[in-house]
Write a structure and sequence with these properties.
The complex is a heterodimer of chains A (123) and B (323). With 123 residues, chain A is mainly alpha-helical. Chain A has four helices and no strands. Classes of the chains: A mainly alpha (123), B mainly alpha (323).
């Protein structure tokens, strides 16, 4: 087909993925033939150290986890932003350096703000 | 032509992945032996000579165990989670260069690819914790996800220095850039951050809080049994292997051996695998030496020390390179 681009570099990656999924599925499906299956209600209950489970398992959890997730999104995007800059550093020269320092400075202001707001306190 | 190319790749992948699986199962044996001897025990001794058949016995046992699906679990997600974990752990082997000119896929964004896949790995943990519908799994999954994503930033930032020095994100180019000095000597701060971050990433001691058996039973894997648990186990050890390989490629000179005339005939692959095993030994050594961190210590260590340190390292490296 004209205009169809096949990224040949990535074909091996797809094959590795296929193998990994095959190992996972193969172990699960292959085991189906040999492993026993004798379920009863107590065995299938969620584990709670032998007691009958009490209450809802998915209770409210600390808002801290949301904050970490949000911070992760911010900081990881910023880290991803640095990779192309680092690879192209020689070509960008002084201009790229100053730009990135400005970027890191702005980031640092945000970081200090988050710190002072107490997002990193876990007690 | 293309068909034979695909077939050849297929064979190559089959060989490399099966060798990796063999190593992964024997790393468990290696760990038990190392930890055993460090605690003045012998480790596994019964199955085969010095317990050498132990991993095979373990695998067979897991294979024959009943696979329990908790009645309240979210079934489809419960099924998928370990497979995602295995996919993320094994998938990264595709870009690791094992000797000069050999990587299954020599792509130009290899480093980015590994970072991306290690992020995908955290999905398997959080999905497993959520889908099990059990209190221990839920807490373990939450903790683990928070820990992994926190240390992922530090790990990503510590590798920016490597990309600055080598001017490439291709792992083969990164090894070539170390022909004069290994990056561990030019980037010691980054190496320190990276080592701590990958220990936290792979949920190993002293950062093994997600599966802290004294408080959370087995964390996100509590409700998993049989081979399904085995897949999580496999993903963890394969992840360790990949991360050690990444450390060797990025900081310890990859397949580069010592510059001695007498040892010139030793193929690069041998040096590579030796370094990987030395690093894995280091993992076990740390596990046998250090007690577990408390959760708030772990989080503040990641956010308050390692991220600023990695960021400072980036600025410093860029400055040095400019001068």
């Amino acid at each position: 087909m004209p205009g169809t681009y096949i990224p040949w570099d990535y074909v091996p990656v797809m094959i590795v993925f296929a193998f990994a999924v095959m190992i996972g599925l193969g172990a699960l499906v292959g085991g189906l033939l040999v492993r026993p299956r004798r379920p009863y209600a107590q065995k299938l209950a969620p584990y709670e150290s032998g007691n009958p489970p009490v209450g809802e398992p998915r209770y409210k959890f600390s808002v801290k986890f949301y904050i970490v997730a949000m911070l992760f999104v911010v900081f990881d995007v910023e880290a991803v932003f640095m990779y192309p800059w680092a690879v192209a550093f020689d070509k960008l020269g002084m201009f790229g350096f100053i730009e990135m320092m400005l970027f890191i400075f702005i980031l640092l202001v945000g970081y200090i703000y988050v710190w002072k707001k107490g997002a990193f306190v876990w007690e | 032509m293309t068909f034979s190319l695909v077939l050849w790749t297929f064979i190559k992948v089959a060989i490399v992945v099966s060798i990796l699986m063999l190593h992964v199962s024997y790393v468990v044996y290696f760990e038990r032996k190392v930890i055993g001897h460090m605690q003045a025990r012998m480790g596994p001794m019964r199955v085969g000579w010095h317990g050498l058949l132990q991993p095979i016995a373990d695998a067979i046992k897991l294979f024959f165990k009943e696979d329990i699906m908790p009645s309240q679990a979210d079934k489809s997600i419960f099924y998928i989670a370990p497979i995602i974990g295995v996919l993320a752990a094994i998938g990264s082997i595709a870009v690791i260069p094992m000797w000069d000119g050999f990587a299954i896929a020599n792509i130009n964004i290899g480093l980015l690819f590994i970072l991306a896949l290690s992020s995908v790995g955290s999905y398997s943990i959080i999905l497993a914790g959520w889908a099990s519908n059990s209190k221990y799994s839920f807490l373990g999954g939450l903790r683990s996800a928070a820990q992994v994503i926190s240390y992922e930033i530090a790990m990503g930032l510590s590798l920016v220095g490597i990309m600055l020095l080598s001017g490439s994100a291709n792992l083969t180019d990164i090894v070539h850039a170390q022909s004069d000095y290994w990056f561990i000597f030019t980037q010691p701060a980054a190496f320190f951050v990276f080592v701590v971050a990958i220990i936290a990433e792979t949920n190993r001691a002293p950062f093994d809080l997600p599966e802290a058996e004294t408080e959370l039973v087995a964390g996100y894997a509590t409700e998993y049994s049989g081979i399904r648990f085995g897949l999580f186990f496999m993903a963890e050890y394969a992840g360790m292997f990949i991360m050690s390989a990444l450390a060797v490629v990025c900081f310890l000179g990859g397949w580069d051996g010592p510059d001695i005339r007498l040892l010139a005939w030793v193929p690069g692959f041998v040096w590579f695998i030796l370094k990987v095993y030395a690093f894995i030994f280091f993992y076990f050594w740390i596990r046998a030496t250090l007690p577990r961190y408390r959760y708030d210590q772990l989080m503040s260590l990641g956010w308050k020390l390692f991220i600023p340190l990695a960021l400072a390292n980036v600025v410093f490296t860029a400055l040095l390179k400019l001068l």
